[in-house]
Design goal:
alpha/beta, Rossmann fold, Helicase, Ruva Protein, domain 3, single chain, 21 helices, Zinc Finger, Delta Prime, domain 3, five-stranded parallel beta sheet, about 45% helix, disordered N terminus
């Protein structure tokens, strides 16, 4: 608790943490002092929400009704550690932090035993924060169960991995699972601007050039901690190079794009997610996959990843590409693309880049066919032009009362009773008999589809009107 001095009451009676430790990193100094300063997680902080009751209990009854164990699940830099600090400090509880990377069962039991003694002798409550709880073994997680059940500690556990797979069921069932949303670029921008102006941060000693701010937000990729760390490094570089007279006079030193690049030793990727370059790179990416140039496709993927493009957007485009440009030439391409989209959602970045690259390689090297895409397009063209006709009577629903009297289902042939499970009967409306929408290519798996479809259509062509 060396970063926090005391708890006071701010505007409207909101508890506020007073901070110490001016030599702490910028990301630590700028941790929100109250729930009102938390960005991007408004869905968890509505009045009366479980998390707000836990942090700001209105009375003893509200404190007892608050959850005794909370698991915070979200990407890095979204505020999991911050919320844990606020749970402890704003509510006046003692704060103890363990890292699942270094702590063992002995450490957990020692903290719990100490918390029990304090609770019994002085009534002092303890918040136990466990970072990266998914790294705890089953025995370590089991050691937490008695303390959670008996409320000897208020457990706040943080994880970047899906708790359904990484946290034991008994602990998960005794905890309130709260999902933190990824920070948007505007959330990160707001935090950066606050750090530049706030006395806890840089106190107006620097001024970010617009292009430098844009680059910093892009490089952060929704990670507030990363954004503030880069900002601190860039500000330090700019201040060290500025004229002493200007610094002494209190004039803000401008931090430009080049300074940000040098601070992190990464050149800016010229890629505006809201501008022409965004659409140009995405267009080149999809066309490279369609053209089977795997190297070009990986290049454009790298440009999007390096620029901080939303990996879910990239994954969605891959799903579309698999269906539109590959189709039945390699049906497994769509499975790969969908699996990649799910995996990226599950693990996030930076590891998600590997999943995306695997999907790109599969799609770019797969045989190509747009026959299914063209087929639905042609069918929609007929429908929109009014070429629809009526459903043949033998195909209509015959399960409701009176359907038989109307002739519905009369003469229908059950396909599984026919040779090869193909019944020679009419399926299209009369106006469209003989219309062909799907023309398979001779590439990949679709070559087999074409051979089978030719035989199927020959059998269907023998159809006679139902009796």
């Amino acid at each position: 608790m060396d970063l926090f001095d005391a708890v006071t009451t701010g505007q409207h009676g909101t508890p506020v943490v007073e901070r110490a430790g001016s030599g702490a990193p910028l990301a630590v100094r700028m941790r929100p002092a109250s729930l009102d300063e938390v960005s991007g997680q408004s869905h968890l902080l509505q009045p009366g929400s479980p998390l707000r009751r836990l942090v700001e209990p209105a009375d003893e009854a509200a404190r007892r009704a608050a959850p005794g164990s909370v698991i915070l699940w979200g990407p890095p830099g979204t505020g999991k550690t911050t919320l844990a600090y606020l749970v402890a400090t704003v509510s006046g509880r003692r704060f103890v932090e363990l890292s699942a990377v270094t702590a063992g069962v002995k450490d957990v039991r020692q903290v719990v035993d100490d918390a029990r003694r304090r609770l019994a002798t002085s009534g002092e409550e303890t918040v136990l924060f466990i970072d990266e709880v998914h790294r705890f073994s089953k025995s370590q997680q089991d050691a937490l169960l008695p303390s959670v059940e008996n409320r000897w500690v208020t457990l706040v556990a943080a994880t970047t991995e899906n708790p359904s797979f990484s946290v034991n069921s008994p602990l998960l069932s005794r905890s309130l699972l709260l999902t933190l949303r990824p920070l948007t670029g505007e959330h990160v921008r707001e935090l950066v601007r606050r750090a530049v102006a706030d006395e806890r941060g840089l106190g107006g000693s620097v001024e970010l050039a617009p292009e430098a701010e844009d680059q910093l937000v892009r490089m952060a990729g929704g990670d507030a901690r990363k954004a503030l760390t880069v900002l601190e490094a860039a500000a330090g570089t700019a201040l060290s190079e500025a004229a002493p007279d200007a610094v002494a006079a209190g004039e803000p030193v401008v931090v430009g794009l080049e300074t940000v690049e040098r601070a992190v030793d990464v050149a800016a990727v010229r890629y505006d997610r809201d501008g022409d370059q965004h659409y140009d790179v995405v267009s080149a990416f999809i066309k490279s996959i369609r053209g089977s140039d795997v190297d070009a496709a990986l290049h454009y993927l790298a440009r999007m990843v390096a620029a901080g493009e939303d990996p879910r957007f990239i994954a969605r485009r891959l799903v579309i590409s698999a269906a539109e440009d590959i189709g039945m030439a390699d049906p497994s391409a769509l499975q790969t693309a969908v699996a990649a989209a799910q995996a990226v959602q599950l693990i996030g970045m930076p590891e998600g880049r590997i999943v995306l690259a695997e999907a790109v390689v599969h799609l770019a090297t797969a045989p190509k066919s747009n026959a299914a895409y063209a087929g639905i397009g042609a069918a929609l063209e007929d429908v929109r032009a009014g070429r629809i006709g009526v459903v043949p009577a033998h195909l209509r629903d015959a399960h409701y009362a009176g359907a038989e009297r109307l002739g519905h289902g009369k003469g229908y042939q059950y396909a599984h009773d026919a040779p090869h499970a193909i019944a020679p009967q009419q399926y299209l409306p009369d106006e469209l008999v003989g219309r062909r929408y799907y023309t398979p290519s001779d590439r990949g798996y679709e070559r087999q589809v074409a051979e089978r479809l030719e035989r199927v259509r020959e059998i269907l062509g023998r159809a006679r009107p139902p009796r």
